[in-house]
Every structure is written in C-alpha cells, then in structure tokens.
Amino acid sequence: MGEKPGQGRKEAWQGESLRTRMKRVKVYRLEDNGKWDDQGTGHVTIDYIEGSKDLALAVVDEEDNDTLLLHNITPDDIYRKQEETIISWRDPEKALELALSFQEAESCSFIWENMCTIQLELQSKILGSHEVRPQRTVKSLEAPRDSLSRGKSLAFELPPLELSSLSVILKTILLCDVTQQTRLADLILKDRDFFPKIVDLFRTCKGLGDMDGLHKIFRLVKAIILLNSAAIFDKIFSDDFILDIIGVLEYDPEDRNVQNHSAFLKEHAVFKEAIPIRNASVVSKIHQTYRICYIKDVILPKGLDEATLASLNAIINANNAFVVCLLKDDTSFMQRLFATMRSSNISAESKRELVLFLREFCTVSSSLQPAQRMQLSRDLASRGVFDIISDVLRSQEKVLVSAGTDILHYLTQDPNLLRSYIANHEESSREGISLLGLLIEGIATDFGGEMLCQFLEILKVLLDGCTADTVTQCRDFIELFYEKCFDKLINIIESSRVEEYSAKLEILYNICELLCFCARHHPYKIKITFFGSNSMEKILTLTRRRERSLVVAAVRIMRTIIGACRNDELLISHVIEFNTLKPIIEVFVENGNRYNMLHSMVLELLDFIRKENLKSLVVYVVESFWDQLLMFEQLTSIQAFKLKYQEYVDIAEETQTTSVDHTRKADERGLDKEEEDYFSKDSNEEDSAAQTRHAHQQCLVKPANGSEIHHIPARPKSGGLVDNDSDKDYKPSPKRPVKADEALNIPMASPSSLDSKDADGNILKKPKLEDNQSPLSPASSIKNSDGNDDVGKASPGSPDQQQHALESLDSGHQTGDDCMKDAEDTTKTTDSEPSTAG
Length: 838
Known about the structure:
Layout lengths: L6 H8 L3 H5 L1 E7 L5 E13 L6 E7 L5 E6 L6 E4 L3 E6 L4 E7 L2 H23 L17 H6 L15 H10 L2 H13 L3 H15 L2 H16 L3 H7 L5 H7 L12 H7 L12 H20 L6 H23 L2 H12 L5 H17 L5 H13 L2 H9 L4 H14 L3 H11 L9 H9 L5 H15 L7 H14 L1 H9 L10 H17 L4 H4 L5 H5 L8 H17 L4 H9 L4 H10 L5 H15 L3 H15 L6 H45 L4 H11 L2 E4 L7 E4 L43 E2 L5 E2 L34 H9 L8 H14 L9
Antiparallel strand pairs: 1-2, 1-7, 2-3, 3-4, 5-6, 6-7, 8-9, 10-11
Helix pairs in contact: 5-8, 7-8, 12-13, 15-18, 17-18, 17-20, 18-21, 19-22, 20-21, 21-24, 24-27, 27-30, 30-32, 31-32, 33-35
C-alpha cells in the first residue's frame, strides 16, 4: 500500500526533537528604506562564545550550517518582545535593527525568558556579589520546561541594610524597570526594620560626621521616594519617621551647604491654633500635610518626576478633605469660632488670627467635591460669615482686606447667597456703607493688582450667572447695582481726566473691564446707563489719556456696546445723534500708521460694523469722517468699508429710480378709472367744494411752439387747494377742515418732468439734500409709506404744501384742454360754489 503525498515528511517532522522545533527562526534586518530584509532561516541557540565567558545568541542556517547571526547578550535594556513570536533589538556596536521571528510562540517565550535571566546575571556581576539574584540560573537550553515557566516571576533578595551595602541596594533600585518597582517596594515593606535601620544609620553617620555615608543615605531615600509607592509614602510620612526623613534630605551631595530643614520645621514653623482643635487626628493630618508640602515645594522641587509629584498632591488633597470634613461637622468647634469672631472683647491680633484661619479653612476646602463645597458655603452663610466679612473689608489693614476678599471669592460658589444678603442688608448697613458699596470701594482703591482683580471677579460673578431658579434674586441685585453703583464708577472715570490723574492705571482699567462686562451681559440696560446721562461721553474721555491700554479699553467698551445692541435701531441712532464715534476716529487718526493694539481695535470695530451690515453706522462714519480716514485708504479694512458705503449708495439710487418708474406707471394705469369713479359718484356740498378746488389745479403741457403752459389737473386729494390766477376770489368751503397730519396722495414726479412754476411764474424745484449728504444720510428726509417725500410740517393749503403739490404733478398724463374741460365739468357738478381764494 503506497504512501500518501507528504506523509513521509510529516512523520519525519513528528520525529524531530522538541529542542529542534523550538529553535527554528527567521532572521530579519531593518534596511534604510524602512523595510525588513529576510536574512535567512535557521536554528537559534544560547551558548558561550568559544574562548570567552560571554553568552551569545547564535543562529545557524538550517541548510548549510553557516552562521546567520552571532550576538553577545548585554545587560542593557535593548531587547523587546513583540506580540508572541518576535524578539527585536538594536545592536549598539553594529548600529543595526535586528529581529528574530519564531516558528512557534512557545519557542519565542523560551528564548526570551532565558535572555532575561542572563541579563540579570550580568547586572549582578556589575553591581557586586550582593546584588539582586534570581532564584535559578540557566546553563543550557535543555532545562526542563516547567522550570523555565517558573522563571517568569523572579523574586528579589536585597542584602542586609548596612552602611557597606548601601551602594548595592541603591543600584538595585535605580536599575529596576517600571514593572519591577512594585515588587521591589513590596520587598522593602516586608522588612519591618528597613526604615528604622535607615534612621539609625543616618543618626550614626550624622554623629560621626560621615558625609560620604550621609550622601549615600540621601540618594537611597530619594530613590525610594521615586518608587512612587503609596504604602511607602504612608510609612515615611508617618509621625515616627517624617522628621528623620526630612533630616536625611538635608544632605544633598549636589549642594555644598547643609540645609537645616528639620530645625526650621521644629522652631520656626509654629502651629497656631486660633481656636483649639481637640481632635488629635485632625492636628496630626495638619502637621503631615504641611511637611509633605515642604518636601515637595522646598526640599525636592526639581528632583521629583511627574508621577511622584501627582501622588504627593493627591495625598495633600486627601488630607485637606479629611481635615475640613471633620472640622465642619464639629458643631462645637464652629460655634466657638464664629462666637469668638463676633465678640467685641477680643484683641485685634486675635481677630486677625481668626480671619486668617477662616481664609485657610476656605482655601483647603477647594479639595472637596462641588456639592460639599456648596453645602459648606451655605453653612458658613447661615452662621453669619457675611457680617464678619463686611467688618473685615472696612479694615485699614491690607492683609485683612486681602483675607476678606479671598473668603468672599470662595463663597461666590453659590452667588445667590451673597446677592440675597446684599439685597436684604442694603438699607440697614452700618456706617452707611453696604457690602456692595465696600466692593465698589475696593475696586476703586489702590490695593494692588492681585486684590483689584479679586474685587473685579467677585462683582462679575454677582452680575452674571442667572439661572431659572435664581432669576428673581439676580434681577434685584442687578437693579440695585445700576441704581447705586454704576454712576460711581462713571464718576471715577470722569474725575480722572488727563490733567488730574486721580486714579491709577490699574483702577481705571479694571473699571473699564467691569463696564465692558456689563454691556455684554446686560444689553437691555445700555440705553439707560451708557446713554442716559452722558456716561458714554465720560467714558470716551479716556481716549485722551496717554496710556494706550486705557484708550484701547475705552474703544473696547464702545465695540462691546455696538456688538450687544447691533439690532437696536434706537441705540444706533443714539450713537449717530451724539456723534459718539468722533473721539475714537480722532485718536485713531492721531495714532497714525503705528501698528499697535489701538490700531487693530479700531479697525476691528469698523470691520464689525461693515460685516454686520449696520447701514446707518456705515453711512455715518463715511459721511462724517471720510476726510480723516482718507490717509488710511491703502488699508484693506478701510477700502472694504468704503466699498460697503458705495454699495449702499448704489442700491439706494437704484431703489429710488425704480420707485419713481413704478409710481408713474401706476398713475397711467389708474388715472382713467379714478376720474370715472370720481365724476360718476354723487357728491355732497363738502365733496363738491373739494372736487372743484382740485379741478382748478394746473397741469403742464407743451404746445407746438415748445413753450410751457401750466394748468391744473383734476386730481382729487385730501390735502389743501393750490392757488392759481384764475380763482383768486374763490374761497373753499370750510365745512371739512383738513387735519395737519393728513397725507397728500400725490404721485411722485417723473424723473423726466420739467420743473414746475407757481402762479407768479417762479420756477419750483425739488428740495435738495443738505451739503455733504447723500440719499442715505441719517439727516435725509424721511420717506412716507407710499414712497413719496414727506411734505414736512406745513399745514394743508399753505404755500409750502402748494409748492410741493406742484412738484409732484405728472404732466405727461393729460393735455391742457383736457384739464380745463375737467375743471368745467367739475364746476357744473358741484352744488355750491367755492369762495375765491384770498
């Protein structure tokens, strides 16, 4: 019976030894182009190099037994295991990237474990005879598989802690990788005498003046801290060891002078209890937290990595939360604290210590969860903390005022608490200065940049953040602020003119920031506050200051107002009416071609006006200030602004022309129907008089000789009668007086119409725009609903109105004979004769 294809080869493969199967690999080398080049397939072994004691990794070609690879295993951390079947490394001597690709994952793990074991042996030889030793040593690849699998978990053995073994232990800690740090920390903690022995060695070396030993202990303790083990931190930061550990860290070999950190903590860092704390665990945590902060910030500010630094910060925050929670829940302690602060029998120094303690208490409370912080704020408010802060802010001592603002800023986590307090105590405040008034005084007082910013932030929080639940309290506070405080801020700016300099730069700048904030968040208040009492004019006096930052701040306020109320036509008209942009354009022109913040801010303002299509402002700026802006015409922003203005002009002219054409066509279509309806209806005495007056209006015709003749078209309208020469003694009936505001329904004259003449032969021309005005000018005449020019304030039948009526006539609709005939027919149909016009 014959063999199946491949059967003999399969049986031969199954007959191979396990050793041969586990060694089969492919060798790869990384080329310059980033691709791996196959160097061949062979069998890998780990053995001593002939004539040497070094162990090497060798790969022999499976076909011709040539050596494909020979690599000395080094103690350096250059080897990497990728996935389950690849081991790669970079040969530092040959500068090559090499890789072994194993046939099976088991063979890869087998070689990898042996390489790791050999590395540990090599490191042990480097460090000395007491170095970390693995439990087993690989001598050949014929070692049992179960023994090799146990080699995945290597146990460390540290030498006894003695002065002579400090270097070995230090090197062991420094050379372990991240995966070994946890096992090494467990090994250290397993020895209960480890840290007591370190303390004893430290005291011995310190007593003998052994600086070399002290330097070794410093390096060892620092290396242990960098292991970043929470269990080790609990040990070394305990009350039993922390002061000695700080003493060890005084002997930094890189610092020539010994630092007396422990002496400072014992003698100068005195713990003051403004109110005695009876809980010993709270006191212990307070001490521990301070000392950890001292190690982190003073002793080892540059010697800690990010991971260790994060762990120390976590310990500090946890301690703070522990202390705050215990103290806030201690009813007796809180009652004693606030009763003492409200007492009038305590000394100024004691009160000062209590205020500083309360600030520290609020500061460390930031480590609490948001809900806990909110509840703490409410608890403090219920105990009367706002009354205490009001008294503190009245103090003349800058330290106390600073502490008060810090406490108040913390309490604004629930701003509605402070809003309610201010609203309820505004009228009953002592000495006539409420807490809100104290905040305004604070922002206007030269306390320094940091405190001014603190006052500013508190006011911003109170003026913002309204929610559906707090809208009532928020609205009441905002009304109170604008009623009591807004004018005070404006007066501070007004009193700080160029000549006086009564307020410092920081004060004025912060006030501008607050006003800008108000304009952005309360646009509905701008009309009353910024334009109601010339406030904007006073603010813009800052444009005359020599400090450019204040000039920019004033421009920013104007920019914010326009941005917040860009859809408010009334406010935009205020800006135009009061010529508000004049000082801004002037200071922009004075700045010239200097490219600075002022230059950019004004250009941004103009760009905003253009992009938002604020037509009135575009026309106002160009027609009022173009002569001044002409020197900047080369700037892209100014060019775009001018093009936008021209676009508006073109659209207005086109619209006006189109409107006139439509009106003329409408008149031509509707004239016959109007006359037919007019002559066919029954008229009473009042209507007859009005119709007769209309019949005597003149219309314009051109005879063959080209001369102009004025006749009156028979066009009924509700306005007054136009006088003419043929009816000087003709008086209209007074039965239906015409109202002063009654519109004249007169069609707009055609652009082709010639100028009309009055009864005396004087040429009547249309009213023209004022000088330097375009049809878009804010001062242009207002159009009525029909698209015709408003007749102004003249009464019906006045000469002004008559002249305007003549201007509005369309002479192309009827001939002169038709007009006269209409007049005669109209006269016949009236029941009463109109009296001659005087």
